[in-house]
Amino acid sequence: MSIDINLTRAQFDEVMVPNYAPSAIIPVRGDGSRVWDQTGKEFIDFAGGIAVNCLGHCHPALVGALTTQGEKLWHLSNVMTNEPALELATKLVNATFADRVYFANSGAEANEAALKLARRFALETVGAEKDQIIAFDKAFHGRTFFTVSVGGQAAYSDGFGPKPESISHVPFNDIAAFEAIISDKTCAVMMEPLQGEGGIIDADPEFLIAVRALCDKHNALLIFDEVQTGVGRTGELYAYMSTDVVPDILTTAKALGGGFPIAAMLTTATIAAHLKIGTHGSTYGGNPLACAVGNAVLDVVNTPEVLAGVKQREQLFRDGLNKINEKYDVFSEVRGKGLLIGGVMNEKFAGRSRDFLVASAQEGLMCLIAGANVVRFTPSLVIPHADIEEGLVRFERAVAKVFAA
Question: For this UniProt entry, which segments traverse the membrane (predicted)?
Fold first, then answer.
């Protein structure tokens, strides 16, 4: 069969599996917080590749790291270790509660490793009967069959046959419901400290404290999925750092590579000891190219200037969105933390978040949604103030368009 290699959106339908429905826009170049498509149209990027492009597009430190490492060593497999992986693991250990690091390629893979480790830890320290995993409604932990089953959204996990067993879900921020289900059979609790895909819902401080205490009472491991909240997104290197709770296992991905695929699972030496040689692995995990970029990301992001700048930019977003809302009354609230922000549709615009996304693109702005009722913003952590201002101007035009429709 001959294939037309004219690279258009129509070509997607000819050669790609139809599990995505991408827009007609095909970006070809990015610089900082600006992106240009095939036609030369410019967009301001408030989406950040879904909280991935933490330093925008083509940041000099990341380009330099990738170029330098690309001329040295690309891949070895885990038959051997490599210097960039050792350096990045050391930085992560020094910056967090963790003693040990396992590298993977995506958030789903890091979460898969965390769940397998939790099950293995419980099996070897207690017995096969301690296998229950508790997670929360509206959670999202990845698209492998294990992680999508642990995630609390049936629409993503139904239709693929029998699911992994001994997984329970309870409402987020409901202490009573959680206390009623946890027991000595619980091996792990997995949660996002700030739910992303579920609608930008922050964990109540007292809920976090109760979860930690009940995990300790029942000898269950607490896993924090910080795939979206990690690496500066909330104004801390990791979101747990602004709470009174420390997890037993933490997963990180997305922003860790600033756009280059990499993920990591962090844990203590005692827990890590149960992933013995041969029990888990990854062909590309700890790849020198990915780790070189990850090192550059951490060197830039994990600084007082950048982390404080995230909180300053959060306020600019909140002020701008509230000002727009005073004029058009489309949001019931603006919520989130740092540069993981959600505008929640009020009753008049319920279910119409995608209308705002589409209108924004028409006005030269890239943003996201988190379900049918939340417009989500996850821009670069170092987005220039001028780009925030101009992006909000474009977003206001989009709001006005939807408002008038």
Answer: none
